[in-house]
Design brief:
7% of the residues lie in helices and 67% in strands. With 171 residues, it is mainly beta.
């Protein structure tokens, strides 16, 4: 049985196909992450803010309501992987020790995105897209690998560490 809402679309089927275009979409993301470090091991610290850049990707599909029109609406559904890395080197000063941290943190965030765009076509080869997007963070992960070096009463110690974090670690 065909529902009442679908029946008029079937009657206009050939006209609708000419007015809607759909297809796959894939691309590259250029990402920037800004964050602050928390004080490690409960000590005080002076660390730079994080400003990490990286490259990720997105995959999905789009529907364009007027592929031949000068203005149309375009809706996309994308899976987006955004990855960045930050190299750090900072020192903390406690009452009896000075600690130096050197390493790298890799961040990976995965989103499901729904951009709704206005497409303005200026020529057959050139169009501009602008609009808003809703995004749902699916997962987040960080891997911090580095070396901690400290001096106590004239003796220098060193510790190699790896800390892994996920979105489940965030409260």
């Amino acid at each position: 049985m065909v529902s009442a809402a679908v029946f008029p679309l079937l009657l206009l089927g050939t006209g609708i196909r000419a007015q809607v275009a759909a297809g796959p979409k894939a691309g590259v993301n250029f990402n920037t992450l800004r964050a602050r470090y928390s004080a490690p091991l409960g000590g005080s610290k002076v660390a730079p803010d994080v400003k990490a850049s990286g490259v990720g990707y997105h995959l999905g599909f789009f529907v364009n309501t007027g592929p031949e029109a000068s203005a149309a609406m375009r809706i996309e559904l994308l899976y987006s992987d955004r990855s960045t890395a930050d190299v750090y080197d900072f020192t903390t000063v406690g009452s009896s020790t000075t600690r130096r941290y050197q390493g790298q943190v890799d961040y990976t965030m995965r989103y499901l995105e729904l951009p709704v765009l206005l497409t303005v076509r200026t020529s057959k080869e050139l169009s501009f897209h602008g609009g808003a997007a809703a995004a749902l963070l699916i997962s987040a992960r960080s891997v911090d690998e580095g070396t901690e070096t400290w001096t106590e009463t004239g003796t220098t110690y060193s510790n190699v560490y790896t800390h892994k974090g996920t979105d489940k670690d965030v409260s």
